Amino acid sequence: MVYTATAQTTNTIRALSLRDAIDLTLRHNLNLKIDRYSAEIARYGVQAGYGGYDPAFRVQVAHQYDDMPNYFRPDKANPDFGYKADSEILGTGFKGKLPTGLTYDLSAMAVDFHNVRTRFMAPDPFEIPNYFAGGGSGAVGFGPPNVRLANEHYMQAGLALKQPLLKDFWIDKERQQINLYKNQLKVSEMAVRGTMMRLITELQIAYYELVSARENIRVEQKALELALQLLSETRAKVRVGDMTQLQEQQAQVHVETVSGDLLTAEQSFAQQENIVKQFLADDFNAWWGVALNPTDNLVAVPEGHDRIQSMQNALTKRPDILQMQLDLKKQNIILKYDYNQLFPSLDLDGSIGIRSANRDIDRALEDLSDVAHPFYSFGATLSFPLGNTTARNNYKAGKLAREQSLTILKQLENRVLADVQAAMSITDTSYKKVASTRNARQVREAMLDAAQKELRAGAATNLGVLEALNALTAARLNELRALADYNKARAQLAYGEGLTLEKNLISVNVR
Fold first, then answer.
1. Is residue 56 exposed (0-12), middle (13-18) or buried (19+ Cβ within 10 Å)?
2. What is the pLDDT of residues 297-336, one digit of tens each?
3. What distances in angstroms separate CA 223 from CA 141, 230, 441, 473, 485, one per listed residue?
4. Chain-centre distance of CA 413, in angstroms?
5. Distance between CA 471 and CA 98 in Å, rounded?
6. pLDDT-based confidence at 345, cuts 50/70/90?
7. Which of 61, 114, 252, 510 has its CA 20 to 30 A from that of 402?
């Protein structure tokens, strides 16, 4: 059992390997959950972008009343007679847009004209007031033979199409938004990957510090054991007169000093324990009263480097590099749309359909089904804004924005390469320090053993043993620090190369 201050005051001890800690972090860390929500929101954004191609279904039901006065037209031999009519209108149709930019409108309409009252009487060309109401010159009330009562059924069905050929042809606002949404989804997914890598690296560093803190406790416990042993031997020699009270007091002070160092080490372990717990839990209270017992040890596994491959990995797998490349892709999407808007609008349009009209509804339907009265049209429309100021300046701004993104990407690549080179250097140096501190610790152990033998033989005072004890404790702590720093450097190098997930055998599943 690991001796810590927290282990004495808690109810549960949780054995925790680094692999367990990583798995718990990926399942429960709140920062990662937030980024996963962002990716899911972006996925819905992509689906929403295709809503622009959803056809719109419409139904129209209306009643219409018309009261048209008769009026004289000099360009016609016969006058336009006034009429009154009621009509019931029923219409339906689909209207929408295809990803090619083609818009379509498929419609059908039926109109029932009834109570149509037409007055056949030539009006005074000099405007006859109150024609239907009577009272004016030549006014005649409704009734035979001047008024015709009639009903009429009118039907029409048709399809209208419009296809852009220049502006809005290879890209339009809807396609731009869909591409931007897709790009944002990739950015969000890359953000999840980046957060996973960052969290795992930070967790590894925190875990190695936790193991180091645990080993520091063991070193201080061993130092306290040796200090108490020295105090006991010193007191025995004081009793027989071989040592002085001052030497006993020096040994006692050393015991108290090491006891204080042990308390400091235990406190450091408790603080580092809380740091690790923050990675593991979405509810910190759930870990209240749980003491962590890290099961992994600090070992120095040699790390071989291929400088070219490390650089290549960093430039192709680092999430920050990939996100910046996606930002550049976003600028290209915007620029593509801005370039398209420089062109004039050249649209092909056409329509085709059938009509029928008859007092008898069955005859009207028969004429419609027989295509008795077809109609069609086709043509092209060219339009362009004079000056095109907005489109031209948007395009110029878009080109500058792309150049800005390219410059930022180059700057980031340089910084990443420098970071990787520095990380490789730190890893190599840290590995060498592990060997040197191990040798130093072994020498200090031998020196303590020699000092203890001299003390027991009466050839030296306990001052030399005290110095050897302090030097050995420092050497052991230095070795632990070197081991922790080396493992941390390996984790940071993996992050710099963009290989954190691969080296920990983790696959990214955003959903």
1. exposed
2. 999 988 888 889 999 999 999 999 999 999 999 999 999 9
3. 125, 10, 13, 6, 23
4. 22
5. 80
6. very high
7. 510
Amino acid at 274: N
Angle ∠(185,190,194) on CA atoms, nearest 5 = 150
Q: What is the side-by-side order of every strand in the sheet holding 373-383?
A: 56-68, 83-97, 103-119, 147-164, 345-358, 373-383
Backbone angles phi, psi at 474, to 5 degrees: -60, -40
Distances (CA, A) of 25 to 19, 164, 276, 417, 420: 10, 52, 10, 29, 26
Q: Are 289 and 10 in contact (CB under 8 A)?
A: yes
* Residue 193, φ and ψ in degrees, nearest 5: -60, -45
pTM of the predicted protein model:
0.80
CB neighbour list of residue 34: distance below 8 Å, 6 or more residues apart: none
Indicate the pairing of strand 56-68 with strand 83-97.
antiparallel
DSSP notation for 304-363: ---HHHHHHHHHHH-HHHHHHHHHHHHHHHHHHHHHHTTSPEEEEEEEEEEEEEESSHHH
Query: Quick check: 154 and 113 in contact, CB under 8 A?
Result: yes
* DSSP helix/strand/coil, 433: helix
Residue pair 499/306 in contact (Cβ under 8 Å)? The answer is no
498 backbone dihedrals φ, ψ, rounded to 5° = 80, 20
In angstroms, the CA 261 to CA 478 distance is 15
Give the 3-state secondary structure of 159-214: EEEEEECCCCCCCCHHHHHHHHHHHHHHHHHHHHHHHHHHHHHHHHHHHHHHHHHH
- For residues 379 and 350, the answer to whether their CB atoms sit within 8 Å is yes
Identify which of 209, 223, 351 has the alpha carbon closest to the alpha carbon of residue 269: 209
Token pair in block for residue 402: 């792309």
Give the model's pLDDT for residue 368: 85
Tokens encoding 85: 């009519």
- What confidence tens digit (pLDDT) does each residue in 41-65 have? 999 999 999 999 999 999 999 999 9
Token representation of residue 259: 């006891």
Among 122-126, 266-270, 375-379, 435-439, the minimum mean pLDDT is found in: 122-126
Tokens found for residue 506: 């983790």
By residue count, the chain amounts to: 511
Per the CB < 8 A criterion, the answer to whether 234 and 243 are in contact is: yes
Q: Map residue 487 onto helix, strand or coil.
A: helix
Residue 79: cis peptide before it, omega within 30 degrees of 0: no
Say how far apart CA 343 and CA 214 lie, in whole Å. Answer: 70
